Amino acid sequence: TGVQTCALPIYRRGTEDALLKIIDRTTARNGTVIIPSFAVGRAQSLLFHLYHLKAAGQLTNIPVFLDSPMAIDASDIFCRHMDDHKLTVAECRESCAVAHYVRSAEESKKLTADPTSKVIISASGMATGGRVLHHLKHYAPNAKNSILFAGFQAAGTRGAAMVAGADSVKIHGEQVPIRADVQNLDMLSAHADADELLRWLRGFKAPPRVTYIVHGEPTASDGLRQRIEKELGWTCILPSHGQTVKLA
């Protein structure tokens, strides 16, 4: 049974179109796509999108590998608890089956050394540790490959540096040149955006005495503060680091 891409919700169609474009562009130059991913939740979302692309016949000859023991365990748990999500049994099983599972360190090393085109999903999502670092050391210096981040990259992480265009990053004590094509599917971020947060706040029956914004990059947080004050008329504060507030 095929999946009609035109019938997909807009947000999912956009994600899958972007994902397919990057994979096709990379495999056309005989490259490999490395996707640093959070092991729980994000990896399973990626498998779901890849399953839909394969089911629609848009992603046929490229093997997909899930190289993260935690992500593999999380995928197994995901399919054992069907009441906790909206996928059908078939969708869940087929999504998780779209990838070859890489469990042992030895298998991971062989995967790194494999010169054929492929997609590797591996933790961690911001390239702060885990098996993905070994893949990045091997694949990042070659321009035929792609590094595809799957969501928000916190300041100070390797992921944020690469997305910002860093020429090199330090991995295992070495400066690794970044010549691969670096992209970010920021539409996969699990964080609500400003519009979604404001829609949620508008549902309050009564406004809080004070609203505090304690998470996010400073510029974006201050922009949200201004919108809350202007659009809702609420008192909104962006606390400084180390500030103490008494709630009573």
What does this protein look like?
There is one protein chain. The chain has 248 residues and is an alpha/beta fold. It has helices at 10-28, 42-55, 69-80, 89-96, 105-113, 132-139, 158-163, 194-201, 218-232; strands spanning 33-36, 64-67, 100-101, 119-122, 146-149, 168-171, 174-177, 181-184, 211-212, 236-237. It has a six-stranded parallel beta sheet with strand order 3-2-4-1-5-8, sandwiched between helices. It has a two-stranded antiparallel ribbon with strand order 6-7. Helix 3 packs antiparallel against helix 4 (89-96). It is globular and about 60 Å long. Mean pLDDT is 87; it is low at 1-11.
The helix count comes to: 9
| Main sheet: strand order | 3-2-4-1-5-8
Helix and strand string, N-terminal first?
A: HEHEHHEHEHEHEEEHEHE
Q: Specify the overall morphology.
A: globular
Largest sheet: 6 strands, parallel
Features:
single chain; 248 residues; alpha/beta; six-stranded parallel beta sheet; two-stranded antiparallel sheet; 9 helices; 10 strands
Explain briefly what this protein structure is.
By secondary structure, this protein is an alpha/beta fold. The protein has helices spanning 10-28, 42-55, 69-80, 89-96, 105-113, 132-139, 158-163, 194-201, 218-232; strands at 33-36, 64-67, 100-101, 119-122, 146-149, 168-171, 174-177, 181-184, 211-212, 236-237.
